[in-house]
Write a structure and sequence with these properties.
single chain, 1458 residues, 7-stranded mixed sheet, 7% helix, extended
Length: 1458
């Protein structure tokens, strides 16, 4: 945001829509579009609707604010910005208008009981809609008619709410508490509930499982084991239920000995079949032979119970005794007998193969989801981590995951039992069989006992025949438990529970109310049969609204977790889920959706006298019967799903007299319960008023949950509060009111709910004391006047925000709308710190009150301001209660009554002096002297300085734009601006600093291009409506470079208004955003045409989907470069050129460009606007460019082709002096395409030797010296042989003590007079700085000296070879290095000696020998021009020094021009 001048007006925090378009003629919510793009003020209503995409092809009803606009006026009306335009498609009724009205009434009458008749587990495939009876009502014309208002006061806890009120039970609204195993007040337990609905968990909840069978016990290895099957609940379409944390009572199940569990879905567990028939057995002896029994038919499992007593009476006690017997079975009529028992197998396994994957589950971290197991338990069967297999420890396995047994047993018919006890022992043997009838045989093998001291009795107690259960278990989940009986556990399992998760989607365990709502709305079907839920198809569900609600629930931290185990309708359950998300089901779009009670909703319609039917406007107020404390009960998951309560009292209530109790079913989060309880209290404070009115159904664009602006000329919204004292004729109010000279009324509500309405004597100005013209029957209670409430009414308050809670038909053409207040205070009341009510304890310590302190908070009060004065004090000792009273200036005292805590909030005017007295009571109700304190405070109000701004920072963008940012926090309501000042010195006071500018505080950011370059100190302070700045402010000192102007496509932002043309003055007030152009990606967006002079004309095309009347034109930005790299606009603004063209253009041509350069094109739409609309005077779309690599950048041609004649001069040489090579004749002309080369001299003659300078050394930027390996060093090898980052692979080293090192070899650099040499090298002197001399030998040649810095550094300097040096010195010159006397070793790398020449304009090739003069001048230039006469590579490399233009067959070679 740009810095703006002080004095701008802050916008309202609430949004108001500019357009509400309902395309469905019967359902206002179906496909409804709410737009915030306002009309420009210059465009017609028809143009505005077309611009925003409203379909005007059919009949529509259009209204501006509350005025209906005829269809033929749409092109003549120009709506202003800030108006609310509503459009609704109409049904063309014709002669069938009555039928149309009936259909419309039916559409409006589709209400919540749509699913009310279906129980969740018994829903049928067809469900009838509940509709209101259509009948003919009398219609009344509403527009322009006068109205009267009816006001009543009714008592209730909450008059009307968008969401349903919480139930008064935890899932027991339709069933008795004793029937719920999970929610029972006496504690959860397992029980059978025959013919009751099966349990269903939504979200996550601890569940006490239903019994699915009668428990029974078996004996294994001398131990008794209990078998039970539990019904976990119903699962859905996304897989079986997940169960964790199994407990018996509060003890984890795994703490018990020998526990085996089996989970199964859609079928009974195999661990424990049903229908057990028992066949009695007999004693087993050898003498009697085998005992044979026959099972029941359809037996699927056989179990044999044996009882045995085994011991031998020895001399010192009982000794062991063994007996062997044979136990077998076979099908009736079968031949082979099969074993029933088991014999010992291998050891217990520690791991098994589990196949699956890790999934993220509801913020609980990744969990292993098992999909398959391998029963082999062979360690080499798979590779751990490959193919989804894990070698999984049994210790890690959840109880709900199946796994092969951790041990092996082998079937055997011959069994042996041992014992040494006179106590009978039992053993059970069993086998699973195919369904049928079987014979069971048991015979003794060990001979019968004949020794009187030996006992080995075996009794065949019974055969248990398990039969299959043919029931349908689709959608059900079971848990079978086998547990060893012990001292911990004796009898049956009666308190087994677990935390059950219901998947809400694929791999999704969610408690979001939206996910559960959608899950239940879809329901679960199998083969077309609805198992549970509503069973709606996605086509019948408003998925968009549910998805938006899901996001809102996340932002508000709302969750739902409930277990359903009683008969409830589908609608009851969906309402319960919605209530946890502050929502309610809705059919407003013709599909099952949801409406939620969100704050700061936009206003979508305006209602007033022009569209409210006369005599239908009613206002209903809550009476004292509303509660003054709310107690909310919920199940706390953090406390192991135990029931808990939250208590919140209304502000100012010391002793609640009318508490209300509610229970929020599905809430398992304590923080959520606190916030919901606070909102219930807020409902009693801020939503006690209900408004109803009747309006015409045609053109109605609102639906339940919408916020509308409501005004009425004859009623006011009134002011209400509590009394602070008074008599039968004088009342002292807790807040100010303004009386109307035309008459005033006040309603007084006694604590018991009795109401009295009295006339009030008029007094000018704001008053807190009123005199009644009609006396009250009795005076308010002097001890507790705060329990008396008052309501003053009849004052016009147009534009009141209300939220629609209900829309019902009122007649054939009318609807009755019900709404409630929608104040910001209601939503703000949700947050706050919850302090549980303290438990009073008696103590003998003397109370003391001291240190009264005051804190001000400026708040809005109507059109002005008030102060919320926070008064606090210090208490010591035991203060049982305290009483506070205060007065303003010399006004009467106001008694605040008894309060809890050591602080109170008072609402007072924004000026004056307030006196506060606090009195404390001890445990006996007495007031010691030490428990009284008083203090006064002068209210600063609007004249208190704003707080200091935080987070202030100053930075700069790449183009030099200065950026100022700050943190946006809560500030007083009259504080809207932030002032920034600066100075060159950090010691300058605020008042003496230069004002840089002001910005809206809530923007958090401002930009500008001042001040200029330099080091500046900036300070930021807030400024309120009275022009008062913060007392202090943060300072930032920073150094800024020259801004160069804020550039927009290379143009300074300060001149952007003139840089772009204002082609369309009608849109200068349009502040809306502009859609960006688009560029084709098929390679057709950019093209070119080559011209005869070698230049190129480049065309650039684009498309734009907006309306041309909405913009002035397009900005075309072009950047030219010799680089083929892709370019980002803004990286080098100085290289960018901007052009403007009108809005009708879609193409742009750049003429006469260099064909072999690279060009980047960008385009953006723009609109010139007034400076108060945008400080820069222009609004632009995004700058877009081609996405193709061959167009970003674009190069017309790799070379330049020239054809035609050249006129004028070339480098000041007349073009007439330039001839073609073919026109040159004479002696010494080289052959065509010959390579030119020569030695140095007056004429180019005598080819030099290969080692000479012109052969290979005389080239610019070429190193003339050789590598260090060829250097002479006085016979001592001072050259490091290892590579040290030098180009020659070696470093030249001058050790400590050495004074010189000889130079390059071979000698003879072949230097020439006038030559310019540049020597460069990198050197490191080691630990000490050392002098290094560099010279050319002999001594007649130049030299230089430098004191080397520590570390590796690069050094360079230049020499000019003087005139007059002996030629022998020049021919034998060498480069040398000398080191000074300092004690350190010098290392030298990267030595270069580079040469350039002033005399020679070009370097001939060494293979040519020509005799022409080599100094080019206007007299001989024609001798050097011909096709191929020059080597192109040489020409390019010498472009920086040559001053010749060469022409060849393809035109001008630009690299050599100048």
């Amino acid at each position: 945001m740009d810095l703006i001048a002080p004095g701008a007006v802050q916008a309202s925090a609430h949004r108001q829509a500019s357009l509400v378009w309902s395309p469905h003629p019967l359902l206002a919510g179906e496909g409804r579009v709410i737009a915030f793009d306002p009309p420009t003020g210059a465009e017609t209503l028809h143009a505005y609707l077309v611009r925003l995409g409203v379909d005007l092809s059919g009949p529509v009803i259009v209204a501006v604010d509350r005025a209906v606009i005829p269809r033929d006026w749409l092109t003549r009306v120009r709506p202003k910005p800030g108006t609310l335009i509503s459009v609704r498609a109409a049904v063309a009724g014709g002669d069938g208008s009555q039928v149309v009205a009936i259909v419309a009434m039916i559409a409006i009458s589709i209400v919540a009981p749509y699913l009310a008749g279906a129980a969740y587990g018994l829903a049928t495939s067809g469900t009838a809609l509940t509709m209101a009876q259509a009948s003919v009502w009398a219609a009344n014309t509403m527009v322009g008619m006068a109205m009267t208002a009816g006001i009543t006061i009714a008592g209730s806890m909450a008059i009307s709410a968008l969401m349903p009120k919480p139930k008064v039970d935890l899932g027991r609204a339709l069933s008795s508490a004793k029937d719920s195993p999970t929610y029972s007040l006496s504690g959860g337990s397992n029980r059978a509930r025959p013919y009751e609905p099966m349990g269903l968990t939504l979200g996550r909840h601890r569940v006490f499982f239903d019994l699915a069978s009668n428990p029974y016990a078996v004996f294994e290895n001398g131990e008794q084991y209990l078998y039970q099957v539990f019904h976990i609940g119903m699962h859905g379409a996304y897989g079986p239920l997940r169960v964790e944390d199994l407990r018996i009572g509060t003890t984890p199940l795994e703490n018990y000995q020998d526990v085996t569990t089996e989970f199964s879905s859609d079928a009974m567990p195999t661990l424990m079949p049903y229908n057990v028939d028992t066949v009695a057995g007999a004693a087993i002896t050898v003498a009697d032979g085998a005992v044979l029994r026959t099972t029941s038919i359809d037996t699927t499992r056989i179990e044999v119970d044996l009882q045995f007593v085994l011991f031998y009476t020895g001399n010192s006690g009982l000794d062991p005794r063994s007996v062997t017997f044979q136990l077998e079975y076979r099908p009736v009529g079968g031949a082979a007998w099969l074993p029933i028992g088991y014999v010992a197998g291998p050891d217990i396994y520690t791991h098994y193969w589990s196949q699956g994957s890790y999934v993220e589950c509801d913020n609980t971290g990744p969990r292993w989801k098992q999909t398959a197991i391998d029963a082999s338990r062979n360690p080499s069967a798979h590779t751990d981590g490959v193919g989804g297999w894990r070698w999984r420890p049994y210790a890690e396995k959840p109880v709900s995951d199946p796994a092969p047994p951790a041990y092996d047993q082998v079937r055997g018919a011959v069994l042996t039992l041992s014992g040494a006890s006179a106590t009978p022992m039992r053993r059970t043997y069993g086998v699973d069989v195919a369904s049928g009838q079987y014979e069971v045989r048991c015979s003794r093998i060990t001979p019968d006992e004949t020794d009187s001291r030996a006992t080995s009795d075996i009794n065949f107690v019974a055969v248990k025949c398990y039969q299959s259960q043919p029931g349908d278990f689709v959608g059900q989940t079971f848990l079978a438990v086998k547990v060893k009986a012990s001292g911990q556990l004796n009898g049956t399992l009666s308190t087994l529970s677990g935390v059950v998760y219901q998947p809400a989607g694929p791999d999704l365990l969610s408690s979001n109310p939206a996910d559960l709502y959608l899950l239940f709305a879809r329901g679960y079907r199998v083969a077309g049969r609805l198992i549970w839920g509503a069973g709606l198809a996605d086509a019948d569900i408003d998925l968009a609204s549910i998805d938006a609600w899901r996001t809102w629930c996340v932002t508000k931290s709302l969750s739902c977790n409930l277990h359903i185990d009683s008969a409830k309708s589908v609608w009851d359950i969906m309402q319960a889920v919605c209530r946890c998300g502050r929502a309610s089901p809705s059919w407003s779009t013709g599909k099952l959706g949801v409406l939620w009670d969100a704050g700061d909703m936009p206003i979508v319609a305006v209602f007033g006298p022009s569209n409210i039917k006369r005599d239908t406007f009613e206002v209903t107020y809550g009476s004292e019967a509303i509660c003054d404390e709310v107690t909310l009960s919920f199940v706390d998951a953090a406390a192991d799903y135990k029931a808990d309560t939250i208590r919140v009292a209304a502000p100012g209530v010391a002793t609640p007299l009318k508490p209300a109790s509610i229970e929020l079913w599905g809430c398992t989060d304590r923080d959520q319960a606190i916030r919901e309880c606070r909102l219930q209290v807020a409902h009693q404070l801020y939503r006690t008023r209900q408004v109803t009115w009747v309006t015409d159904m045609e053109g109605l664009v609102v639906t339940r949950g919408d916020v509308v602006a409501l005004s009425h000329d004859l009623t006011q919204w009134g002011t209400s509060g509590r009394l602070v004292g008074g008599s039968t004729l004088v009342l002292y109010l807790d807040r100010t009111i303004t009386l109307d000279a035309g008459g005033n009324w006040i309603t007084v509500v006694e604590p018991n709910g009795t109401m009295h309405t009295c006339r009030v004597q008029y007094v000018a100005g704001d008053v807190t004391t009123v005199t009644l013209l009609d006396a009250l029957p009795s005076a308010p209670d002097d001890d507790n006047p705060i329990d008396w409430r008052w309501l003053a009414d009849y004052q016009a308050t147009p534009g009141k925000r209300v939220k629609i809670t209900d829309i019902k038909p009122a007649s054939m053409h009318e609807v009755r709308i019900t709404a409630m207040d929608d104040p910001d205070e209601y939503y703000a009341f949700e947050s706050g710190t919850y302090t549980p009510p303290a438990v009073r304890k008696w103590t003998s310590s003397t109370p003391e009150i001291s240190g009264i302190a005051f804190g001000e908070e400026l708040v809005r009060a109507g059109a002005g301001y008030a102060v919320r004065l926070n008064v606090s004090w210090t208490e010591t000792g035991y203060v049982s209660s305290r009483q506070v009273k205060y007065r303003l200036n010399a006004d009467p005292w106001i008694d605040c009554g008894l309060i809890d805590g050591s602080s109170i909030r008072l609402d007072v005017p924004d000026s004056g002096t307030v006196m506060v007295v606090v009195v404390g009571y001890d445990g006996a109700g007495q007031v010691p002297v030490s428990a009284t304190a008083s203090a006064s405070h002068v209210i600063a109000g609007r004249y208190a300085p704003p707080p200091a701004v935080t987070g202030f920072a100053v930075s700069a963008l790449a183009d030099g734009t200065r950026v100022f940012t700050w943190s946006v926090t809560a500030v007083p309501p009259d504080t809207a601006y932030l002032d920034v000042r600066y100075s060159a010195s950090p010691s300058i006071a605020w008042d003496d600093m230069t004002l840089l500018g002001s910005a809206l505080y809530k923007s958090g950011r401002a930009e500008g291009n001042a001040p200029g370059a330099g080091t500046w100190t900036f300070e930021a302070r807030l400024r309120d409506g009275s022009g008062i700045n913060s007392a202090t402010g943060p300072r930032v000192t920073t150094t800024l470079s020259d801004p160069g102007g804020v550039l927009i496509a290379g143009v300074p932002a300060t001149s952007i208004a003139t840089a772009v043309a204002n082609f369309n003055g009608s849109n200068d007030r349009n502040a809306s955003a502009i859609v960006a152009p688009t560029i084709a990606s098929d390679g057709t967006a950019i093209d070119h045409v080559l011209q005869a002079d070698g230049s190129a004309d480049i065309s650039f095309e684009w498309a734009w989907a907006g309306s041309e009347g909405d913009i002035d034109g397009f900005l075309i930005v072009v950047r030219q470069s010799s680089s083929a790299a892709a370019y980002t606009f803004g990286a080098s603004p100085a290289e960018e050129t901007a052009y403007t063209i009108p809005a009708s253009k879609r193409a742009f041509i750049v003429f006469g460009t260099a064909a072999n350069q690279y060009y980047t094109f960008g385009v953006q739409a723009y609109r010139s606007v007034d400076k108060d609309i945008n400080a820069a005077g222009v609004i632009k779309s995004a700058l877009v460019k081609s996405s193709r690599s061959d167009e970003n950048p674009y190069r017309p041609s790799a070379s330049v082709a020239f054809s035609g004649n050249v006129t004028g001069t070339i480098n000041n040489i007349p073009a007439t002096n330039v001839n073609s090579w073919n026109a040159i004749t004479g002696t010494g002309k080289p052959a065509d395409n010959a390579t030119v080369g020569a030695s140095w001299g007056t004429n180019i003659v005598n080819q030099p030797a290969d080692d000479a300078l012109l052969n290979s050394k005389l080239a610019a930027n070429r190193n003339l010296v050789r590598g260090f390996r060829s250097w002479n060093n006085s016979g001592t090898n001072w050259v490091h042989t290892g590579a040290v980052d030098g180009e020659d692979g070696n470093a030249l080293v001058i050790p400590n003590g050495s004074v010189w090192v000889a130079s390059s070899s071979p000698a003879g650099l072949s230097l020439f007079p006038g030559m310019h040499l540049v020597v460069s090298y990198r050197a490191n002197p080691g630990a000490l700085r050392r002098t290094l001399n560099v010279d050319l030998y002999p001594d007649s040649l130049p030299e230089s000296s430098v004191l080397l810095d520590l570390g590796w550094k690069t050094y360079s300097f230049g020499w000019d070879i003087p005139i007059g040096i002996p030629q022998t010195d020049l021919d034998n010159a060498v480069l040398r290095f000398f080191a000074g006397p300092e004690a350190s070793q010098v290392s030298i790398v990267d030595v270069k000696l580079e040469a350039s020449w002033e005399r020679t304009p070009w370097i001939p090739h060494r293979l040519d020998a020509v005799t022409v003069n080599n100094k080019i001048d206007p007299n001989n230039v024609t001798q050097y021009v011909n096709n191929g006469a020059m080597d192109t590579n040489q020409l390019a490399s010498y472009a920086s020094t040559e001053r010749v233009v060469f022409f060849d067959a393809v035109g001008v070679y630009y690299a050599n021009y100048g």
